[in-house]
Amino acid sequence: MAKVLVMTDNVACIPQGLAEENQIKVVPTANIIFDGYTYIEGVNINATEAYQLIKKDPDRFVTSAITPDYLLDEYRKLSMESQDILLITLASALSAFFKTANLAADLFREESPKTTIRILDSRTCAGAQGLVVLAAAKAAAQGMNLEQVASIAEQVRQKTGGLMFLDTLRYIYRTGRMSKTASRIVSLLNIKPINRMTDEGTVELVTRARKREDGYKRLLETIRHEAGTDALHFVVSHAAAPELADRLSELLKQEFNCLSLVISDYSPVMGYGAGPGALFVGFHPELDLDLDLPKQ
Description:
Layout: E1 5-9, H1 16-21, E2 24-27, E3 30-34, E4 37-39, H2 47-56, E5 62-65, H3 68-78, E6 84-89, H4 97-111, E7 116-121, H5 126-141, H6 146-159, E8 161-165, H7 180-187, E9 192-197, E10 203-209, H8 212-227, E11 231-238, H9 242-255, E12 257-265, H10 268-274, E13 279-285
Parallel strand pairs: 1-2, 1-6, 6-7, 11-12
Antiparallel strand pairs: 3-4, 3-5, 8-9, 8-13, 9-10, 11-13
Helix pairs in contact: 3-4, 5-6
């Protein structure tokens, strides 16, 4: 068992088997509510089922934040396994989960002062967040202490990029950036935006395309420009579109030296605003990390 226990939320889009293999504890960021029923992704509903609900009626698909009490219970369980816990969250600019996690940690410190919980804002999401978490888990497995593991995560975060390719703007009104009527009108134009995660953890438009293959081409060009190398680790996350993820993965293998490539579901907790067909790709090069830290 790793000395430091690494946690993350399900928006990191790490497949269950990969999380278990790397001893990563995954917790939900939000509840999913549809027709009066409450679901938790990975517990009583999977991503495919959730996207079916979104397609059925996006207006009835809503989310509610996980409470501090829920995370407090998770901290209690995990403290039985390790007294050093690192929780890497999705960007605080995109969700209240970071604040909730810190509030729960403050409560837990009062009842268990011997357990150290550190909360790290990944300032990204989906596959990019997943890459940061995986790097931290590997550092923990090598026996590094909490400060070293957190330092590795921070260094990887700074070198990790994240891009999202939307298949439609039909669902964008759910983010509050556009009215429902406007999103329907714009979706008829078949515009497919490519957005990037900024260093501050916000989302900004990079470019757009009308045809999917043109969008793939621009996505690859943007990755090459931002990464500055063709030797990269990738995580490709898809919103109920495995065939599109396979196509993008094929292109990545053709255009880059893929050091590793993981395909996963894009969490519907975030994907309800992006809509089915959306793709997210996280990437970073092989890193020469600074491990010159004091030993315990």
